[in-house]
Design a protein that fits this description.
23% strand, WH-like_DNA-bd_sf, alpha+beta, single chain, 159 residues, DNA-bd_dom_put_sf, 2 domains, Arc Repressor Mutant, subunit A
Length: 159
């Protein structure tokens, strides 16, 4: 997997690009542009040098980005180990509040037993996780509201 993807916003809509110009604009190798052409990126015509329209390039990159998406249907969270949406084990999900209105869903994958996470709003819990038991846990303790810590000092022992 590449370190970063080509940004379609760097491509100007009303400009034509040669292979080397497009590679420089997107920050990829010239051979990557040839691979894109083999996967369906349409050139302006069959003459040399090969030119591509900016609007065509943007549409191609947007379509490629959309094909990589794997939206989670209701009742599932995305498992990074399985690389697909999975149902939580035993239908149990924890909601850890981060802000007043939102937080993180946390559950164990029913297949590989990996911890899965998903960001969610508290108001959408019933819609996102239907048929699952959602337990709202205590939020993380903030340092601002804590009592003063006990000193880690052994002065009494030294005397």
């Amino acid at each position: 997997m590449p370190a970063r993807r080509a940004n379609p916003q760097r491509v100007k809509l009303h400009r034509s690009y040669s292979v080397s110009e497009l590679a420089l604009c997107c920050g990829v190798h010239k051979n990557t542009i040839r691979h894109w052409q083999a996967k369906g990126l349409e050139p302006v015509d069959s003459s040399r040098p090969t030119l591509f329209r900016g609007a065509t390039i943007r549409a191609f990159l947007a379509k490629a980005k959309a094909s990589r998406k794997s939206p989670c249907p209701p009742g599932t969270l995305y498992c990074l180990r399985c690389r697909e949406p999975r149902k939580p084990a035993l239908g149990m999900v924890d909601f850890v509040p981060i802000t007043e209105s939102g937080g993180n869903l946390r559950a164990i994958c029913g297949t590989c037993e990996t911890v899965m996470h998903r960001r969610a709003r508290r108001a959408d819990l019933g819609r996102i996780m239907p048929g699952c038991t959602v337990q709202i846990t205590q939020g993380q303790i903030r340092l601002k509201g804590r009592a003063s810590p006990s000193p880690n000092c052994d002065k009494e022992r030294q005397n």
